[in-house]
Amino acid sequence: MHAVHNPARARDIVGESALADAALVDRAVRAAAAAAPGWAALTVTERRDALKAAAGAALEDFENRARLLTNEQGKVLWESMVDLAGAPYLLRECRRLIERVAAEEIVDDERGRFVRRRRPVGVVAVIVPWNYPVLLAFNAIAPALAAGDTVVVKPSELAPLALTAVLHAVSAALPDGVINVVPGDGAQTGHALAAHPTVRRVMFTGGTAGGREVMRAAAESITGVGLELGGNDPALVLESAVVDDALVTALRNSAFTCSGQVCFAIKRIYVHRSHFGDLVEALAAVTDQLTVGDGLDPASSIGPLISAAALDRVQALIRDSAEIGGTVTELGRKLDPAGWERGHFLLPHLVTGIPQQSRLVAAEQFGPVLPILPFDTENEAIALANDSEYGLAASVWSRDDEHAFAVARGIEAGTVFVNVHAAGASDHTTPFGGVKQSGIGRINGWAGIEELTETQMLIRRDDAANLPGPPA
Ligand code: NAD
C-alpha cells in the first residue's frame, strides 16, 4: 500500500492506495475486454440511459468527496468542486453525442453501396495526473463510454482517492467491467497498462516526459495514443491593450489558480514595452491580495503545492532567477504563518529582468512564479511565444479584436485565447490539445469521440467487373 499525504499538513495521511502490479493490470484489462462486446452492442437509448445513471452516481456524496480532494490535492474547496462537477457535466454532454456516434452514412450510387460508420476502439486506458484528477479523467472516460468503449483508469499516485471514490460509484451504475481502476505509480502500473497488448488506445494526461514513455510502451502493440501534455503558455499583452484592473486580474487568476499547477495556466507574460512598468505594478498589486493557506480554509485563495519535490523544484527556479540578476518579488499573505512549514506552501512571485533563455522562462514551472518580459515589436513577441518546445495554449490581449485574432493566427499552440486565458474558456464545445511537445490529438465534444472510435467502411461494388485489376 501507498500512503497519500495532505500537502497542507504533510505529516497527515489522508488515505492509502494500492500499487497494482502487472498481474493486476492484466486482470483489469481482461475484465474490460470481456465487457466490451456487450457494452458496444447497447442501443442508443440504452446507452443514453446508462450514461444518465452514471452522471447521477458521479454527483453522490459531493461535498465529502470535494473535501477529500482538497485534503489529498491541496487546492481550495471551490476548485475541488469544479473538478468533481466535471464528471457529471462531461457524462451529460457526451450523452448528446451518442446518436451521432451510432448514425451511419449510406451512399447508394451506380458503383454500389458504401456504408461509413464508427466502431468503438475497444479497451481504453486512461492515465490521469493529480492536478484536476476527476475532470481530466472524465475528459477521456465520458467520450469513451459514449463511443461504446470500456475503460481501465490509472489515477495518479499523488491524488487517487476522490477519483477512485467517483469511479466506484459510477462503475456500480454501469454493467460489470465497463469501468475498471488500477491504482499505482507510473513506472510499474502505468507502464504495464500502456504496454498491454489488449489496450487499443491510451489516453494520457500528464507531463511530456511521461507522455514520451507511454508512447514508447504503446508502440510495441501499435496502440494509438492521445497525449495531453505539459505547456508553457505565453500571454502577449499588445500595445493596443488597455492595462486595467480587469486585465491584470485575469492574468493573475490564470497564472496563480491552483498555485499555478494548471496545464494551461499563463506561464510567461510578454508585454509591449510601453505598458511594461504599469503592468508589472498593477499585477503586483492584485497578486498581493492573494492569501495562501489550507484549501479547506475559506480565507485561502490558493493552497499548497502538491509535494515537497514540487516545492523544491519551483524554489530552485526562483533562486536561479535571483542568481542571474532577476528582480524577484514575493507577494501575497501567509494565512497561518505558524503552520507554514507543515505544508508545501509557497507565496506567489513575480519575476522581471531575466532573459528568454533563463530556466524560469524556458521550463514549465507548474507553480506560483511568473516571469514578465518586455517586447518592442509584435513579430518579436510572436517569435518569443513560439520559441518553446511546448504549444498547448496562449493568449493575446488587445482592445482591437481583429488585430488580436491576426496575431493569434501566428502562434504555435492548440488554442489561442483572445482577452481571456482561463479554465472554462475552453469547454466541451471546443476541441482542446497541444502542438509540438504539448501533445497529440484533441479532446472535447466530437473531437474526443473521433479519438476513441475507428471509422469502418462497408462496401458492396456493383461495378466490380470494371474495376482495375491484375491482367487476366
Ligand atoms: P506525470 O506525467 O508525472 O503523471 C501523470 C500520470 O502518468 C500519473 O498517473 C503517473 O503515475 C503516470 N505516469 C508517469 N510516468 C508514466 C509512465 N512511464 N508510464 C505510464 N504512466 C506514467 O504528470 P503529473 O505530475 O501528474 O501532472 C503534471 C503534468 O501534467 C504537467 O506537465 C501538466 O502540464 C500536465 N497536464 C496536462 C494537461 C493537458 O490537458 N494537456 C492537463 C493536466 C496536466
UniProtKB/TrEMBL annotation:
SUPFAM superfamilies: ALDH-like. PROSITE patterns: ALDEHYDE_DEHYDR_GLU. Keywords: Oxidoreductase. It comes from the Bacteria. One of its GO terms (molecular function) is oxidoreductase activity, acting on the aldehyde or oxo group of donors, NAD or NADP as acceptor. Residues 3-457 form the Aldehyde dehydrogenase domain. InterPro entries: Ald_DH/histidinol_DH (IPR016161), Ald_DH_C (IPR016163), Ald_DH_CS_GLU (IPR029510), Ald_DH_N (IPR016162), Aldehyde_DH_dom (IPR015590). The keyword RNA-binding does not apply. The active site is at 228. Belongs to the aldehyde dehydrogenase family. This is Aldehyde dehydrogenase. It comes from Mycolicibacterium diernhoferi. The lineage of its organism: Bacteria, Bacillati, Actinomycetota, Actinomycetes, Mycobacteriales.
